Amino acid sequence: MVSGGADSSIRIWDLASTENNSKNYVLKASGSVERFYPFDSLAFLSSSYDHTLKIYSSTTLSPSASFELNSVIYSHALSPIASHLLVACATQHPTVRLVDLRSGANTHSLAGHQGAVLSVSWSPRHEHVLASGGTDGTVRLWDVRRSAAGDLGVLDMEDSVGIVGYDGLGTGARHRSRGKAHAGAVNGVIWTEEGDYIVSTGHDERIRVWDAAKGANTLANFGPSIKNTRLSSNIPLLAPTNLSPPGTEYLFYASEYEILVFELFSGTFIKKLRPPNLTSNPQPGNKKAINSRPQSRVMSLAWRGRSHVSFYSAHLDGMIRAWIPHTEEDAAAEADEEDQGVEVDEDYRSKRKRNALDDVYHDLTRRKITFS
Q: What stretches of residues are WD repeats (predicted)?
């Protein structure tokens, strides 16, 4: 895993060796998880507030190329399926900047937003289609093959019907040029695994799920517990579909100091995850809890992989925390130990949970699992 921090450092972690040492299971590093370069497992991309996009070699730990965009970069995205090597960058400038890694050029910009662009995401189904969210409250769709005329329209939170056209993708239908996805800045945009839906998050403290083919708001309601105030990107984490029951998908959301788990399509609240030793509602006289809380803010989330039932969260206090399943058997065993007056050792508890992961993975559909 690769992480990038506010201290301008990038670190690489060997998760396999970390799991064998429970004392290091909470990783002491700053920052948000970066993405590996999909066509070369030994290379990865990073972007920074210093206006640069860089490609690194994980063997030499040195940059292979650097691209100057002359603007603060909030996030970047590389298509997981495309044959092209275009990197979309969300910057302080009100356009989506495209960098071609093959030619080393800033090929062109996609203009349409009326403010800074905070989040970008490529479709996992159509290699030339891109979604972006900005401070103007809009989520825009683009076809990068059309250059300056690549704007496919915006998502409108008031539209629960959508634009169908004669092919189901809006072809031949009216072009929606007006409408907002959120009543505030949009700092999170992501597609579901199959590309059927788009999920967006905004400063109006709402999560919205959109039918990608029609651009319709599915009206999923995630309730009033959503918190979203920072300008940096806040992209939800979607659990791999192979780890969920058929017809169900789970969404993990970084809501300030805790992680909220929802069912994606209904918005049903499932679980609240909180880092250890963090007081949910510190009392006015508890200065230690109040002073430590801002440093525990969750900055980003990353799933380990499709075959692993675990994910990671990066925090403002410079920690990367690992989250693993807590099975019903674990809860029953701990209850028995507490009833018998046995003090549960944290290292032993972590080791037991990790040993149960293989059994949990192969028995997901028959065993009820929650995260803790």
A: 1-23, 110-145, 179-220
List C-alpha distances in Å: 133 to 59, 105, 118, 311: 34, 23, 6, 25
Domains and CATH numbers, the chain: 2-322 (2.130.10.10), 324-372 (no CATH)
Backbone CA torsion sign across 96, 37, 248, 129: positive
Buried residues in 262-298 as b, exposed as e (16+ CB within 10 A): bbbeebeeeeebebeebeeeeeeeeeeeeebbeebbb
- Over residues 153-203, the pLDDT tens digits come to 899 999 998 876 545 455 555 566 788 999 999 999 999 999 999 999 999
In this structure, the chain runs to a length of 372
β partners of residue 47: 53
Contacts for 72 with CB less than 8 Å, ≥ 6 apart: 49, 51, 91, 92
- Identify whether the C-beta of residue 190 lies closer than 8 Å to the C-beta of residue 209: no
Strand, helix or coil for residue 346:
helix
Residue of 128, 173, 182, 168 lying closest to 153 (CA atoms):
173
Look at residue 39 and tell me whether its pLDDT is greater than 80. no
- Using CA atoms, how far apart are residues 342 and 334, in angstroms rounded to an integer? 9
- C-alpha R_g of the chain: 21
* CA atoms 57, 60, 66, 72: torsion sign: positive
Helices of type H across 187-280: none
Instruction: Please state the pTM of the whole predicted model.
Output: 0.77
Q: Using DSSP, state whether 334 is helix, strand or coil.
A: helix
Q: Yes or no: say if 360 and 368 are a contact pair by the CB < 8 Å rule.
A: no
CA diameter of the chain = 71
